[in-house]
Every structure is written in structure tokens, then in C-alpha cells.
Amino acid sequence: MTERPTRILLADDHALVRRGVRLILDNEPDLTVVAEAADGAEAVAAVRGGGVDLAVLDIAMPRKTGLQAARELARLRPAPRVLFLTMYDNEQYFFEALKVGASGYVLKSVADRDLVQACRAAVRDEPFVYPGALNTLVRHYLDRGGDGGALPERAITDREEEVLKLVAEGHTSKEIAELLVISAKTVERHRSNMLQKLGLKDRLELTRYAIRVGLIEP
């Protein structure tokens, strides 16, 4: 009996990118794109609907980043495997991807070369990283003296990060409260906690911080 193709969710806020990536994946007999999403929140909702084996996520997306979405997907049972497809050749994003349990990290610039291979590796539960990332891993290991210590913790919590992203996107406290299904008072408390933790003064500095850590694009 022929094995069922791997069912893939493709999440990217650019329709043209999704179209091109879909052409690459749907051209393979063992891979099929069954759902698309334009942001991280849509991606989580699509996977919750069932029938997805592998989520291919962009990192920088509206409402929820790919990293935020991946943290939520990891809590689902069964959880899909996650692969990041990104334009960012960036150490911080790469290590965050490892921390959220991603199976692979592929650069969009070489998607036509690496993506299919990465998807198949994820299905086999094998890691896939682009060659430059291997150099990053080795350098990081050597810099830490080979002690194998844990990666440093983020300064803010998952929920604070969700609030921060929406603040930086220009949403009001009321809008954020509605999107996250919490009270406006709770939103304000999260914002106040972040200002204190990060040593920042106002919304503008929060937005600059969000750009710096990749929650939104400048």
C-alpha cells in the first residue's frame, strides 16, 4: 500500500512566497500542502483543526511570529513537527528555533535546494540545518568552553512577548485585550512589567526593542 503523503501547513504573510513554496512542495509525491496561513495565529488555528503533520513557518509574521506559534504548537497533542523557512541568517533566531523544538531551519534564498530535503528529514525526526548554522553551533559551543550549558533564558515571558508584539504593531490596549482574550487591565500590567524588566521608558522604546529582537519588521 502506498504511504500517505506528509501533510504540510505553510505559513507566511506574503502570498507570493507561499505560492512559490507550494509549487516546490506539491511537486513531490511524498509531500502535499493541505493548509496555508498568513500569520502565526492562523497557523495555530489551522493545525488545531487537525490533519497537519508538518508546519513550515516563517519567523516574522503579523499577530504571532513563527516562534510564538511554534511554542503553542509544541503543546498540542499530537504536536506537528515544525520547520522554519526564513530570510534571516541570524544566530538569535536560530537558537530560538532550537529552543522551541524545531526540526529544521531553512533559508528562503536556498529553499529550492534545501526545503524538500528538510521536510523529509523532519518526517524522519532528524534535524536539518543549513551549512552556515552548523558553523554557528560549533562557534557557540567553543565560546561556551564546551560546557554544554543551557541557552540563556529570554528576558520576558511568552505572554509578555505576545503583548509586546501587538503593542509594537500599533494596537491599543483594548484591541490587544480582545485579541488575546484578557482584560485591558492585564494588558497594561504586562506592559508595565516589560518596561521595568527591560529598563525601557515608553511605547516607542518597546517598539524599538521588538524590532531589535525580531518580533516585527522595521
UniProtKB/TrEMBL annotation:
Location of the HTH luxR-type domain: 149-214
What SUPFAM superfamilies does its record include?
A: C-terminal effector domain of the bipartite response regulators (SSF46894), CheY-like (SSF52172)
Q: Which Gene3D superfamilies match?
A: 3.40.50.2300
Q: What is the lineage of its organism?
A: Bacteria, Bacillati, Actinomycetota, Actinomycetes, Kitasatosporales
User: Where in the sequence is 4-aspartylphosphate found?
Assistant: 58
One of the Pfam families matching this protein, by short name = GerE
Q: Which residues form the Response regulatory domain?
A: 7-123
Q: What is this protein called?
A: Response regulator transcription factor
Alphabetically sorted, this entry's keywords are:
DNA-binding, Phosphoprotein, Transcription, Transcription regulation
Q: Which organism is it from?
A: Streptodolium elevatio
